[in-house]
Structures are given as structure tokens and as C-alpha cells.
């Protein structure tokens, strides 16, 4: 982020997209996920969705189905950001 006090959403690649594109279903989800590919705050976005069990939309390049599966596999994670950051460094 450019400003330490700014919220991560200010740097999100999707910040100017139509929400209907990001909360798509079926084959349109691939297009929504493509927006996330080079997003500088993808980790923060995904952590937000996982920590808050957000049910709809593409967040951090994961669909709701992918997030539900991950949450089922790892039900004891209290804070996803640290897990995701650690995974990136390996």
C-alpha cells in the first residue's frame, strides 16, 4: 500500500470494476478471477473473505466454492492473513 493508514481496498485491482462482474456466477467467475491475478492486495482480500466467511463473490482469486472447501479443510485457522503470508514465503 502506498499509505500505511489506507485500507487495503484502496489499492485493489477491482476497485473501479462493476460489482456485478466480481459477484458473478458460473463461467463469468473466470473473468472475475483474472482481475485478481496481478492485484497487489490479493492476500489481504482473500484473508478478509476467509476470516469473515464471506459467502458471495470472487475474493483474492477464489470463488465462494473454493473458499468453503478451504475453510472445511482448515477449520481451526483463527487468522488467515498470517497463514497466507507464510505460504507465500515457502
Description:
- It is a single chain.
- With 90 residues, this protein is an all-alpha fold.
- The chain has one domain.
- It is 47% helix and 0% strand.
- It is built from five helices and no strands.
- It starts with 18 loop residues before the first helix and ends with a helix.
- The relative contact order is 0.14.
Structure described in brief:
By secondary structure, this protein is an all-alpha fold. The chain has helices at residues 19-22, 28-36, 42-51, 64-73, 80-88.
Please write out the topology.
Elements: H1 19-22, H2 28-36, H3 42-51, H4 64-73, H5 80-88
Counted beta strands: 0
Helix content estimate: 40-55%
Distance between the termini: 22 Å
Integer average pLDDT: 90
- Tally of individual domains: 1
Largest sheet: none
Strand content: under 5%
State the low-pLDDT regions, or none.
none
* H/E topology pattern: HHHHH
How large is the radius of gyration? Answer: 13 Å
Query: How many H/I helical runs?
Result: 5
3D shape: globular
Structural class: mainly alpha
List its salient traits.
about 45% helix, mainly alpha, about 0% strand
